[in-house]
Amino acid sequence: MRSKFIAGNWKMNKTVADAVALATALKSGFSAKPGVAAAVCPPFTALDAVGKVLKGSAIALGAQNMHASKDGAFTGEVAASMLLELGCSYVILGHSERRTLFGETDKSVNEKTQAALAAGLTPIVCVGETLEQRKSEQTSRVITEQVFGSLAELGGSLDKIVIAYEPVWAIGTGLTASPAQAQEVHALIRKLLVRLGGEAAAQKVLIQYGGSMKPDNARELLSQPDIDGGLIGGAALKADSFLAIINAA
Ligand code: 13P
Question: Is the minimum distance from the CB of 230 to ligand 1 under 6 angstroms?
Answer without folding.
Answer: no
